[in-house]
Write a structure and sequence with these properties.
alpha/beta, five-stranded parallel β-sheet, 5 helices, 26 strands
């Protein structure tokens, strides 16, 4: 048995890779091969397995079930990211720390169950909260419900909480939420309406990214209050929707200007009192729409676009500026994880190859 000490060296046990932590316990770092079911042991060689590492089960596409032992106290950032087939998971009472984006893009996940004796977290109808129920941590993307109301006791919404929830058509945000975190509703492709309370003062970047079906925003405050909200970039689906204010639920002639560090957007909405017609004009610094995957903007997706994505990845990995505009970044990030990676380059190349072979490529 290896000496128990802090080590960057990785060992293998059955279908798992692990390493030793500074406290002498074990962290599961990855799986060896793809599997549909994984059971993490409580101990390996008599040493407790206490941690699931960052991205430990990244892209385990076939994984449908995983069992966590009572020895686990920590689940790292994005531990189960891209586990497309994972349908449910039970978090034991021993877990006291859960990282960000743990279940991002787990599109089949319908339920997150937390042991009743857990002192840090709890589950309500399969939705993950902190124990005090004031932090909404994760809404399973595979839940079939078409509407959801965030409880009024919730004050904090974690990043990407509702990302890829394909069934949700309507969401009401509770009255004590002050900030909506990064990417919260991104890729909710069925979302048509949302109610935002006047307690909200900040909407982070990409909250409503690719929410193309969003048509109505019901705001519980006045138009003047709405104009004071800090709305970051990547929220054109929100700003292009019809805003219904509490003091005038039928939209009237308004002019709202939202400024971020990178983009200034001016939206003018005009409604004739004699009809129900709404005319909207949106002006940005760059009116050009770049198709997904078309980094060079030449109107077609080619090997050059895949190469460009790979070069961007190389730059950012080295700590350099990507040099992309917001729209180029959105076009390059084809898998929607807000990072330009080798995976994006591969998807662009695969798209090109499929189309060149006479197929009908998609970005799914």
């Amino acid at each position: 048995m290896p000496e128990i000490a802090a080590s960057a060296e990785t060992y293998t046990y059955e279908n798992l890779r692990y390493q030793y932590l500074d406290d002498g316990t074990i962290e599961i770092t990855s799986r060896v091969t793809y599997a549909t079911e994984i059971e993490i042991p409580e101990t390996i060689g008599g040493v407790a397995a206490t941690s699931i590492g960052d991205c430990a089960f990244w892209q385990c596409f076939s994984l449908t079930s995983i069992t966590l032992p009572d020895s686990v106290t920590s689940i790292g950032d994005e531990a189960f990211i891209y586990c497309h087939s994972l349908t449910s998971i039970t978090i034991p009472d021993s877990v006291t720390s859960i990282g960000s984006g743990v279940f991002y893009w787990c599109v089949a996940l319908t339920s997150i169950i937390v042991d009743d004796n857990n002192s840090a977290y709890c589950s309500v109808d399969g939705i993950l909260f902190d124990k005090d129920l004031d932090e909404l941590i994760c809404y399973p993307a595979g839940k079939a419900d078409t509407s959801y109301t965030i409880p009024d006791n919730v004050t904090s919404i974690w990043n990407s909480v509702f990302s890829y929830c394909s069934s949700l058509a309507s969401v009401t945000i509770g009255n004590n939420v002050t900030s909506i975190g990064y990417g919260t509703f991104s890729y909710c492709k069925s979302l048509t309406s949302i109610t935002i309370p006047n307690s909200v003062t900040r909407i982070a970047a990409d909250v409503f990214r690719k929410c193309d079906t969003l048509t109505d925003v019901y705001y519980t405050g006045t138009q003047s209050q709405w104009e004071q909200i800090s709305i970051s970039s990547g929220n054109s689906c929100l700003t292009n929707a019809t805003i219904h204010y509490a003091d005038n639920p039928v939209p009237v002639a308004t002019e709202t200007t939202t400024t971020t560090s990178t983009t200034t957007t001016t939206k003018t909405t005009t409604t004739k009192t004699t009809t129900t017609t709404t005319t909207t004009t949106t002006t940005t610094n760059d009116n050009t729409t770049i198709p997904t995957g078309d980094l060079d903007g030449d109107g077609s997706i080619t090997i050059q676009d895949a190469y460009n994505a790979l070069m961007v990845y190389s730059k950012t990995s080295a700590g350099l500026d990507s040099g992309l505009t917001d729209k180029q970044r959105e076009a390059a990030d084809v898998d929607g994880d807000w990072k330009i990676t080798i995976g994006d380059a591969y998807k662009i190349l695969f798209y090109y190859a499929t189309k060149s072979a006479g197929g009908e490529p998609t970005w799914d």
